[in-house]
Each structure stands twice: as structure tokens, then as C-alpha cells.
């Protein structure tokens, strides 16, 4: 077990170096960002009950925040944010400028256009989802400019080998798809395993197509989409855009 794994959940104080401070600030700012807050039901409802404020003590319990101790240092770090404000007593935090949630919802379709599904990641022996999340974020950040990575889970809440990656622009996602998808594409691999890359629409179409026949009588998946590139349907139905928007409302990863 790594030192970082041991520290998670142990609440052992750590030194807030410039690097650690930056990690802490970026993580909390992400929670309140347009990429997470509108789709994070728990965080949104907590804020709505308290005029936008969320207890810092609550945020400190999130998986990716447990390593940042003591909490007093977290408070001190958040006071330096330009988009967040901390209450005078240091107990709560909220956005300086509230998000336009309606406008954010209307932009969901545009975000989906620059989102790709990357499949076939190793997932058989994943013990620490937080560590994996950070590892995959680093993996994609080395390849392109991204906004976020969401790890999909199966019915038992375990990682199923698929990452949903939102890029910071449509051009960036199209470049990535062209580079790593198709017969003449470069191979994309992670820890020795070849990965498959699809558009979000293509991925959603396949999920919809296999929803009724991808499970055996026991309730277990009888086969996986992973690696079945030839079975992926073509993106030729405008009706799927509405289904796609509904799919985006289901948040896969928030606090891992």
C-alpha cells in the first residue's frame, strides 16, 4: 500500500506545499464548477438549503479531499480562491458568482459533442477508485487538454473499464478521436492494454441497443461492449440527441 493510500482516511496532517495547496484548491473549485455542480445532486441540494453555502467539513469528507488535512489548512487555502468565498467563521464555502444552472443545462449538448468514451481499461483488480481516477486524469492530461474524466461503474459500483472524457474544445476531441480511432489510427494503450475510443453519441447508441439483451437471467452481464468495435452502430439518428441529453443528466463520477 502506497503512502498516499495509507494517508487517505487516516486524517493525518500533511505539509501544504505549493503543489499540495494547488491540488486542494483545484479540487474544491472543480466541485463548484460548471462541469460538476449542476450534475452533482448532493452538492447542489446542500447549497440550495443554505443560500449557496456548503459546509467545508462536508467537503472534507469527500474521497478526494480526505488526504488534505488539517481542515484548517483547507480553509486557509480556499480563502485564496478567486471564484469561491469562505464564510467569516471559516465553516462554509460557496461560489462568488452563482452559476446560471438553466444556461448550463442548455449547453449540455455542446459539451456532449466534445466528449469521448474510452473503453477497455484494466478493471479486474481495482481497489482504490480515487487512486485510479487520479492516474487516468494524468494519463489523459499528457495526451490532450481535458476538462474532466468520469469513471463508469457496473451494477455493483465497481469500475467497468470505461472512462468518459470531456475535452476542453470540440477541435481537441475531434483530433483525439481521429488520432486514436479507426483502421489507420495510432494505438492507444494503458498498462499494456489496447484501448478503444468512441464518440459519446456512438457509445450511448450502443448502450441503448444492448440494454435489453446484454444481461443473462441471473442479472449479470452476459457479454461486454468492450472490444466489439464492429458492433458499434452508426451515428445517423437525430432522435438519439434527446436520449443523449438525458444520459448526460446521470452523473457517473463526482467525488472519487
Automatic annotation (TrEMBL):
Record-level Gene Ontology MF annotations: mRNA binding
Disordered, as annotated region: 208-256
Source organism superkingdom: Eukaryota
UniProt-listed GO biological process terms: RNA processing
Biased composition range(s): Polar residues: 213-225
Domain HTH La-type RNA-binding: 14-103
RRM domain span: 114-202
Compositional bias segments (type: Basic and acidic residues): 232-256
UniProt subcellular location: Nucleus
Protein name as it appears in the record: HTH La-type RNA-binding domain-containing protein
Amino acid at each position: 500500500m502506497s503512502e498516499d493510500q495509507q494517508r487517505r482516511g487516516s486524517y493525518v496532517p500533511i505539509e501544504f506545499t505549493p503543489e499540495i495547496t494547488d491540488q486542494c484548491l483545484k479540487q474544491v473549485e472543480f466541485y463548484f464548477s460548471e462541469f460538476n455542480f449542476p450534475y452533482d445532486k448532493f452538492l447542489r441540494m446542500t447549497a440550495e438549503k443554505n443560500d449557496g453555502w456548503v459546509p467545508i467539513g462536508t467537503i472534507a469528507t469527500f474521497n478526494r479531499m480526505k488526504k488534505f488535512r488539517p481542515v484548517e489548512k483547507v480553509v486557509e487555502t480556499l480563502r485564496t480562491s478567486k471564484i469561491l468565498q469562505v464564510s467569516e467563521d471559516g465553516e462554509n464555502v460557496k461560489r462568488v458568482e452563482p452559476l446560471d444552472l438553466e444556461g448550463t443545462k442548455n449547453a449540455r449538448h455542446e459539451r456532449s459533442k466534445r466528449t469521448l468514451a474510452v473503453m477497455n481499461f484494466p478493471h479486474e483488480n481495482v481497489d482504490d477508485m480515487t487512486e485510479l481516477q487520479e492516474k487516468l486524469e494524468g494519463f489523459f492530461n499528457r495526451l490532450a487538454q481535458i476538462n474532466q474524466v468520469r469513471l463508469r461503474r457496473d451494477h455493483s459500483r465497481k469500475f467497468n473499464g470505461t472512462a468518459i472524457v470531456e475535452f476542453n474544445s470540440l477541435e481537441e476531441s475531434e483530433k483525439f478521436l481521429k488520432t486514436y480511432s479507426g483502421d489507420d489510427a495510432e494505438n492507444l494503450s494503458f498498462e499494456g492494454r489496447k484501448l478503444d475510443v468512441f464518440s459519446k453519441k456512438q457509445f450511448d447508441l450502443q448502450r441503448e441497443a444492448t440494454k435489453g439483451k446484454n444481461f443473462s437471467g441471473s442479472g449479470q452481464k452476459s457479454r461486454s461492449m468492450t472490444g466489439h468495435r464492429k458492433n458499434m452502430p452508426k451515428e445517423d439518428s437525430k432522435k438519439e440527441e434527446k436520449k443523449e441529453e438525458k444520459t448526460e443528466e446521470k452523473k457517473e463520477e463526482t467525488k472519487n
